[in-house]
Specification:
about 325 residues, alpha/beta, Rossmann fold, CBS-domain, five-stranded parallel beta sheet, three-stranded mixed beta sheet, about 45% helix
Length: about 325
């Protein structure tokens, strides 16, 4: 079994070396490649055969989900009728280790005829693909992790990583925000995390507001009816303190008789709060970090407008 672990280390070491070499090689052309891809008003057409094609599909999916419309065109399908997807305002990102793949070679004249700029990712700087490309992102000419130097392994890892780097650079150039990301990922946990606001989950009816001059016994009754929390406001209705069951427990631990106190004697005067437009996931993270189970929701004037309960947020799938 130790030999198998050594094999894992060998493969990972080779692939790491490929990534480091790739980072050095693309220094002079990466920015120009991104500028070429972002300049289009159309789609990014991504092509690749075999394992490069599988990588290309993933890159297309990543780009599309991060604000850069991309389409994977299989070279074989392209030369058998699917070239109708191409438009003059598109740009091509072509992946080929050798740069001499027959199906890729047959596509290149079509790109050139339509004046579609070509960004190439290839190991060969003197290949047909490199000569046809407007910008070349070179990969190192090194041995694969395959012990026979046959199966694409480290080369496809570098292609994949380079595709991620391009997608993230495009995201930055396009100012693609987390809100934009949410709009194209409305389903599942990610959608809930990015789309759900505090206003969607807060309780705004019958808020547990009580005067700080009220006896603590009265405050306890209010807390009991509102999941262990109450708060007080000043003469302008601005929040000036909260009190929760946890505070009561700590108070009773350190004081024999607490029932003769007023709420104002024990209020937490600078509580953590949240606002309606805040992402619920951020508010949940704050509650978990502070070890609390609720937040008073305030408006821009610090007037309470609701309560966000941790249990409600977690039940809604916001984590």
């Amino acid at each position: 079994m130790a030999d198998l672990y050594e094999e894992a280390l060998r493969v990972l070491r080779i692939e790491s070396e490929w990534l480091e070499a790739t980072a050095r090689l693309i220094e002079k052309t990466f920015a120009r490649a991104v500028e070429t891809l972002v300049r289009t008003d159309g789609k990014i057409i991504i092509c690749g055969m075999g394992k490069s094609g599988h990588v290309g599909r993933k890159i297309a999916a990543t780009m599309t989900s991060t604000g850069s419309p991309a389409y994977f065109l299989h070279p074989s399908d392209g030369i058998h009728g699917d070239l109708g997807i191409l438009q003059k305002n598109d740009v091509a990102l072509v992946l080929s280790k050798s740069g001499e793949t027959e199906e890729i070679a047959l596509l290149l004249p079509c790109f050139i005829r339509l004046s579609i700029p070509i960004v190439a990712i290839t190991c060969s700087g003197d290949s047909l693909l490199s000569r046809a490309a407007d910008v070349v992102l070179p990969l190192p000419d090194m041995k694969e992790a395959c012990p026979y130097d046959l199966a694409p392994t480290a080369s496809t890892t570098s292609m994949m990583a380079l595709g991620d780097a391009i997608a993230m650079a495009l995201l930055q150039v396009r100012n693609f925000s987390s809100d934009d990301f949410a709009q194209v990922h409305p389903g599942g946990t990610l959608g809930r995390k990015l789309l759900t606001r505090v206003s969607d989950l807060m309780v705004s009816d019958s808020l547990p507001e009580i005067s700080e001059s009220a006896p603590l016994t009265e405050a306890i009754a209010v807390m009991t009816g509102h999941r262990g929390v109450c708060f007080s406001t000043d003469t302008e209705r601005k929040l000036n303190g909260i009190f929760v069951y946890g505070d009561l427990g700590r108070l009773m631990k350190n004081r024999a008789n607490v029932l003769d106190l007023k709420l104002g004697d024990v209020l937490i005067r600078a509580p953590s709060t949240c606002c309606e437009e805040e992402l619920a996931a951020i508010a949940v993270s704050r509650m978990e970090e502070l070890g609390i189970t609720s937040l008073v929701v305030i408006d821009q004037d610090r007037i309470p407008v609701g309560i966000l309960y941790l249990h409600d947020a977690l039940q809604a799938g916001v984590k």
